Amino acid sequence: MPVRKAMMVLYRVCWLVFVALVLIGVLSEPLLPFGLVFVPAGAAVIIGLVLSRTGPRATSRSRPAVEVAPPVTGRWSALNSPADKVPSHGTHVYGQTYAIDIVAEPGTGPGEPPARPPFRLFWPVVRRNRDFPAFGAPLLAVADATVVRARDGQRDHLSRNSLPALLYLMLIEGGVRDMLGASRIIGNHVILDLGDSTYAVYAHVQRGSLRVRAGDTVRAGQRLGSVGNSGNTTEPHLHFHLMDGPDPDSARGVPFTWRGVGVPAGGETFTVEEAGETGEAGERIAPVREGDVGGAG
Q1: For residue 202, what is the enclosing H or E element?
Q2: Would you say the C-alpha torsion 108, 113, 116, 117 has a positive or negative sign?
Q3: pLDDT tens figures, 53-97
Q4: Are strands 256-258 and 66-68 parallel, antiparallel or unpaired?
Q5: Full-model pTM
Q6: DSSP letters along 57-76, please?
Q7: What angle do CA 171, 5, 12 make, to 5 degrees?
């Protein structure tokens, strides 16, 4: 077992032992003196800090950005982008050093979907997924690839884009998901083998939307599934990143760039036209990059 994978397993075991000791102490006679109960939690915190600050190997850091096609079409804005900081999500865990989150930002013209709901302090506490224009949007293969993992059995939960819901996510739900493993953090997901030790991760996929399964080969531009709100999320969106192995627990991040788009900075809005408007399937016309700023989630 790779060292990083072993450390992730030990990290979760320490948290589970801590929770078990606390529950036993509350429900019956404590097994250990009060102070020793917190030893597993302290060990988990230390291991977590080490993992979150351990980035790609020197060989990975020296790799040029891998150019792939955009995974969506339409008008979107970027959040938590590696164009602004690395690691983009504040941690190297799960191979997400160069990860990006994007949310759909429809236009304001006639026939356009409703605008993305803004963050609210207190009300409404949660929103339905269909209130967000990203929910159900097609996810496309960024290159010719082989599917190594495809899972879509987790539910799509309500939004967490109010202060009470966000606190619940950060203080309770996120910690529980972290203890249960990477699949509960990234939710329903697809992992593609692009070749040359490069794997693409699509996280938070809509439940039951996948059109592929492990072992399938896909072509660039082929629909894989739909954007959802499963896993550790505040609202329906796509979390995308490249990594150097198929297992998020042991892989390290690989930089990417989207053909014709580059790497959008946080708040930057970009548009990718649908394939087919210029000819052969699987190709996209050059996207239009816009100067306006999308909302934050």
Answers
A1: strand 198-203
A2: positive
A3: 887 765 556 678 999 999 999 999 999 999 999 999 999 999 999
A4: parallel
A5: 0.87
A6: -HHHHTSPPEEE--S--EEE
A7: 30
